[in-house]
Amino acid sequence: MSALLPAAMPGCADAPVLRERGQREVFCGLTGIVWLHRKIQDAFFLVVGSRTCAHLLQSAAGVMIFAEPRFGTAIIEERDLAGMADCNEELDRVVDRLLGRRPEIKLLFLVGSCPSEVIKLDLSRAAQRLSVKHAGRTAILNYSGSGIETTFTEGEDACLAALVPDLAPTEAANLMIVGALPDIVEDQFRRLFAELGIVHVDCLPARRAGAMPAVGPNTRYLLAQPFLGETARALEDRGATRIDALFPFGAEGTTEWLHAAAMAFGIDEMHFRRVVAGPRERAKRALEPMRERLAGKSIFFLPDSQLEVPLARFLATELGMVPVEVGTPYLHRRHLARELALLPVGTVISEGQDVDRQLDRVRAARPDLTVCGLGLANPLEGEGLATKWAIELVFSPIHGFEQAGDLAELFARPLRRRDVLRL
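The structure corresponding to this sequence follows.
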């Protein structure tokens, strides 16, 4: 398997990082519930928060008022904030009513928010207390989805990290794919691993609470998402070992991700090449017309989802785009080392956000495409800059061989729209 770049090219592995601290423009961690509640099919996410939290989730998920979603909000009222009511008693009453009405719930997450953290409501103790009360019927865990000093994908990280201590122990050798993936993408990866001969493959999170994977000293795990630092730490505390790899974006990124697992499990190299040859070639063919459209175009990533570094690598190495600046809310150098090494020399790497300064750099660079949050996209479009909503990259199936062309299309579409509007 050929390398993506000559080994002599250092990329941005040792590049200095521009660290910024200032005003930020991101969603809060509660947003992760929008995709997590669809993934774990017998779980329920109960946010302990304000009416604003409830409106955010209702709007983000697009759930109609008569639907029965697997999330809700226990609203903190003025009486709770003033200390006139016992929040724990009220929370117990809400949980009892919820589980009485929805007996199919096997896993309940109590999700902290800015308001619950401000009033110092201890949801960890509440989860322990309620777990005893509902033992044998519903497991109850908690995590924080607060938007205080976080970015929105950390909601998934906190949720998965909360699952790890309760995973069953095992001595068996197994591969764990870590990160919430659309079911169709997960199925594609499972088929490829089965063809390679890696038969004991688990996913975290599983689709049902009772199917969560076991973990132990012979567990090797692959991160499917780059924003799962706390989950990775929790798994390693349980004895698991991370397989160092690129993230599975694009033909080459997916090949390298699969190859790293194959090497870890002693799969024959020629067998590996035979298995991936067909899907890899399909992915490369799907990317060819996109490369004609995107090659040589400059792109600027404002920090938002923590997907920025691997996506910039994909766009640069497989589509010929030129990353001007790659900003990310948090930079995990160990998990992203291979990605950084493949970014073109001279790419500015920034961590954190100071919106005004970053917008000044965007205006100075005038990139062909700017990837940013919803709140910044319209103003930049008004200034004549083409933009891509960063959050769409989280909600769309973009991992793996079969999605490589769709991923590239997400970046080509705004440029096509701009050209049409100019006619």
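The longest helix spans residues 269-294.
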